[in-house]
Design goal:
By secondary structure, the protein is an alpha+beta fold. It contains three helices and seven strands, in the order αβββββββαα.
Amino acid sequence: MAIRPLVRFPDPILNREAQTVDRFDAALKALADDLLDTMRAAPGIGITAPHIGILQRLTVIELTRESGVRVFVNPEIVSRSSHMVRHAEGSVSMPGISEDIERPATVRVRYQTLDGNAVEEDADGLMAICLQHEIDQLNGIFWTQRLSRLKRERAVKRFEKATREMARS
């Protein structure tokens, strides 16, 4: 297990679609472990393989230590509720920046486990938001693309300013 370097916004890899995982082996399990370590170090509650520069459809989510770690291989949303909720979102690839985003309150997801077993389940609350956010990333949609143009430009400017200030420190 290792903490991997994070891909930082605006790296173009964050806008590329990840490829379907077709090998369910020790290397995939090791990658999931590395994602967990990297996410915890960031810190964050969700991460995808593209966040560390690997274009594979793998995401790890840990809302709290008590709720446990969830690993989703090849996740896809198969249905969404019409009821919408707003929640603050950000990214380990754009630390320190967050904005409210509106998303469906519940989703049904289909994915595979690390062993390749197919699963379909419903998610609500923060898990539903996190799954939508991470699946967007796997589809090459960085979270800021869900913002209005004005909010996106402001978020990018805040991030650029914070990055310049960190470089001077």
